[in-house]
Amino acid sequence: MAYAAYGASLAKESFAMDLHKNLMTVEWDFTCQHSPVSCPGLVVVVADGKVSSVYPLRIARIGGGGN
Q1: Residue 3: its pLDDT value, please?
Q2: In angstroms, rounded to a whole number, what is the distance separating the alpha carbons of residues 3 and 58?
Q3: Prediction pTM value
Q4: Which one of 40, 43, 56, 67 has the lowest number of neighbouring Cβ atoms within 10 Å?
């Protein structure tokens, strides 16, 4: 979805597990650094096998901190 819409590239992938090590959610951060289309980047969250949310990526998250 993010690739088709913006030419975005995967910047980060995160997984959340429960106490029994079952996969609960997957979160992908996409950036548009190499895209001809200007965009803030996207975060896509998948829970229970379905896309549960899509929202703009805050630039401070890419660097692992910031303001």
Answers
A1: 56
A2: 18
A3: 0.67
A4: 67
